[in-house]
Amino acid sequence: MNVTLTTSDLAHDKTPAASHPERTVDGLTRLHDAFEADLSRVNELIIERMDSPVAMIPQLARYVVAAGGKRLRPLLTLACADLAGYTGDRHYGLAACVEFIHTATLLHDDVVDDSSERRGKASANAVFGNQASVLVGDFLFTRAFELMVADGSLDVLSVLSKASATIAEGEVMQLATTNNIDTTEQQYLDVISGKTAVLFAAACEVGGLVAALPGDQAEKLRDFGHNLGMAFQLIDDVLDYGADRQDWGKEIGDDFREGKMTLPVVLAIDAAKANRDQQQVDFWQRTVGDLDQQDGDLDQAMAYLSQHGCLQRTRERAQQFATHAIAAIQAVKGEGQTHDLLIAAVSASIDRRY
Amino acid sequence: MNVTLTTSDLAHDKTPAASHPERTVDGLTRLHDAFEADLSRVNELIIERMDSPVAMIPQLARYVVAAGGKRLRPLLTLACADLAGYTGDRHYGLAACVEFIHTATLLHDDVVDDSSERRGKASANAVFGNQASVLVGDFLFTRAFELMVADGSLDVLSVLSKASATIAEGEVMQLATTNNIDTTEQQYLDVISGKTAVLFAAACEVGGLVAALPGDQAEKLRDFGHNLGMAFQLIDDVLDYGADRQDWGKEIGDDFREGKMTLPVVLAIDAAKANRDQQQVDFWQRTVGDLDQQDGDLDQAMAYLSQHGCLQRTRERAQQFATHAIAAIQAVKGEGQTHDLLIAAVSASIDRRY
């Protein structure tokens, strides 16, 4: 039953870019390429630390960790450490740690959402069951914790333990807003600040901390990560209603089917209420609030989103966060091309279509 | 929606003892009474640290933390710190931390086992749903982690982070043995060493570490905790097949109905195989392996356990671990009556009927 892992299993998944040659040089790919050697070290650590004599653990962990995704969070740790002039090797363990926290969160998210797919393939809970996903998620989280303790810096431990608690709080907050059509824009931004942006922020800040960056400079890295994370999540929300299925790895409208309140829907409901359009409010209550959905409802939802320009307005909000992210990174003193790469990665996060 | 908590909500649940006056002076009660003031401090911290602006978190956390149980793990931290001569207040936070880890584990356990009851009342997942139980479990675990980081000792962090990872590994191991009638005694002991005994061991060891006890002495405390935890779990296994329903707070035979391989069943299957009694082996395969159970199967299982003396033999194994626990604690230098109290608590753990 044991699974042999190799670093190639864990290589960054370039499929989407590779199938769209015109995008191979986008900012996220450039960032990845610039830190490919460092990311290999991180991948080696990930392989090593997700091992266990309990066969189900590496099997499931491999399934979800190897599935890849963009490895954006560990890349941010590596790039921010580099920007801060760091030349040691502590950032490898911390980047792995950040990825483990992220992966543990994904495993539990999929159980909570009862998801059957992630990144275009069957989700871990669909293959291994919810029970294993809950427990292996716990295992990966505890391994993240061990990696931090091994690093030995109480400052880093403080940042990552606070971030972990905030993520958990954000996830519970999201659960409370799901199916609640009275969720406000601010409540929604609080949710994604907790569940998404805080790990981006911590990933960047610990990159600065290992380099012993002064407090105000490390804070700028955290601001950068927070704003990038907010922008990233909002674009995810847009893509859920508008992505090219082949690239996205998710069905269009997953959030809608799960009754998730994301910013496009919050804005559409706000507009309907402002217009005293009870028919539209009733539509959202039935489909998202009560999850009573019929054929054609997704098309109708898309029509309402379009009527009120909600996807475009969500993109504009994302752009505002991106602008803040770029301002923050420009305020960090640093060397070489990493500044440019991080700025290009922000732009690519906004422009991406998958 | 917010719930106001008071320390009295979190008071040790004395109901079982109170309803059986002859047991009010058992060793566990004496240990509790001796550290009641300290435990109140721990309870205050628990209340403070399980709070959150996200209303569902304190609601659910209160439901499960306030449900009480024996508070044995934090009591062990308090008592071991006292035994080691500690006079500061770091042990309060660490005792709360140990209880949070335990509670997070319970929440996830109940989801994994699809349990509807715990300690005689509806389980949190039955009341709040599996989704909330998974996420609030994560939250409590991250709060435990924050408490450890606030303590600031890398030695303590190392012990508790390793313990947490081992618990998660033990839980996955248990999932792999559930419904597997070929589980060996050693495999089962490995499971409970991971999922139960390691937290008892860590709870005791950190009590020694805050007192700056020399390494070999802290190790004795860990041995004490480990052996007590093993004994405690084995008695739990016996009680699941033999407790007085009113005291136990669980249905007799829960483990059987869930297809859990516990030591009594492992021993019964071993005996059946040794006797080449295919009928009995087939019975366990059908009921525990395939979970194909009918009326009367639990009675039949109890009859087989009785035929091979499996409950008694499990009690004997528990007694062996208890003997090791007592030897370990006797090897720790210490003052006052705490030695006696800890020894009495071991005996009470073996003799308890609930």
Say what oligomer this is: homodimer
Beta content of chain A: under 5%
Pair with the biggest interface: A-B, 39 and 39 residues
Shape estimate of chain A: globular
How confident overall, as mean pLDDT of chain A? 88
Structural class of chain A: mainly alpha
What are the low-pLDDT stretches of chain A, counting only 5+ consecutive residues below 50?
1-24
The helicity of chain A comes to over 70%
Count of helical stretches of chain A: 18
The count of DSSP E runs of length 2 or more, i.e. the number of strands of chain A, is 2
* Rg of Cα set of chain A: 20 Å
Q: How would you sum up the major sheet of chain A?
A: 2 strands, antiparallel
What brief labels describe this structure?
354 residues, mainly alpha, 72% helix, disordered N terminus, globular, homodimer, 18 helices, two-stranded antiparallel ribbon
Protein architecture, described:
The structure is a homodimer of 354-residue chains. Helices cover 72% and strands 1% of the residues of chain A. With 354 residues, the first copy, chain A, is mainly α. In chain A, strands 1-2 form a two-stranded antiparallel ribbon. In chain A, helix 5 (72-83) packs across helix 10 (185-210). The first copy, chain A, is globular, with a radius of gyration of 20 Å. The two termini of chain A are 34 Å apart. Residues 1-24 of chain A have low confidence and may be disordered. The A-B interface holds A 52, 54-57, 108, 111-112, 130-132, 134-136, 138-139, 141-143, 145-146, 148-149, 152, 154, 157-158, 161-162, 164-165, 167-169, 171-173, 175-176 and B 52, 54-57, 108, 111-112, 130-132, 134-136, 138-139, 141-143, 145-146, 148-149, 152, 154, 157-158, 161-162, 164-165, 167-169, 171-173, 175-176.
